[in-house]
């Protein structure tokens, strides 16, 4: 990772930690299937062994990236509560009156319904905004407006 350390929100951190645990378990399973015998085997056995070795390389690379990202976020400290950034938890009100608390994330995570990626239309519109700001953005259904009610996880105050 390059640049200054970037914070990460709690939900995104938990998602990365879960992915890391899953990858480590998968790596252990794949590593256990690699043969350590000296017999060369047939071409199919060698091809299968090479495929598993390549899979280990991909798993190791992803494990390293996630570990570095988690370490970087720890160095960055908590997300800012002054202006919206990656890792921020933001409570917003849509024009239909719906209020939602979302977390700005650098990546999509399928099982996390409240994550908004920083490069999505809503995420881009919210970056750098402060509580009280109202912003317009291009949503899939057309132009939308959202008001920033607060920054920070509302559950932290309880």
Automatic annotation (TrEMBL):
Domain Transcription elongation factor GreA/GreB N-terminal, residue spans: 11-72
GO MF annotations in UniProt: translation elongation factor activity
Entry keywords, A to Z: Coiled coil, Elongation factor, Protein biosynthesis, Transcription, Transcription regulation
Gene3D superfamilies: Transcription elongation factor, GreA/GreB, C-terminal domain (3.10.50.30)
Coiled-coil region list: 13-76
Domain Transcription elongation factor GreA/GreB C-terminal: 80-150
Matches recorded under InterPro entries: GreA/GreB_C_sf (IPR036953), Tscrpt_elong_fac_GreA/B_C (IPR001437), Tscrpt_elong_fac_GreA/B_fam (IPR023459), Tscrpt_elong_fac_GreA/B_N (IPR022691)
Region of interest (Disordered), ranges: 134-158
This protein's name: GreA/GreB family elongation factor
Gene source species: Streptomyces carpinensis
């Amino acid at each position: 990772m390059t640049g200054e350390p970037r914070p990460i929100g709690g939900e995104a951190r938990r998602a990365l930690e879960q992915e890391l645990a899953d990858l480590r378990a998968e790596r252990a399973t794949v590593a256990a299937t690699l043969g350590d015998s000296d017999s060369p085997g047939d071409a199919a056995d060698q091809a299968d062994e090479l495929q598993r070795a390549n899979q280990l390389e991909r798993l190791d690379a992803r494990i390293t990236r996630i570990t570095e990202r988690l370490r970087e976020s720890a160095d960055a400290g908590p997300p800012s509560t002054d202006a919206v950034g990656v890792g921020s938890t933001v409570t917003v009100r849509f024009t239909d009156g719906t209020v939602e608390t979302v977390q700005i994330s650098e990546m999509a995570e399928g099982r996390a319904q409240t994550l908004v990626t920083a490069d999505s239309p809503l995420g881009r519109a919210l970056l750098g905004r402060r509580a009280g700001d109202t912003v317009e953005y291009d949503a899939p259904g057309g132009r939308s407006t959202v008001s920033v009610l607060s920054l920070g996880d509302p559950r932290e105050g309880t």
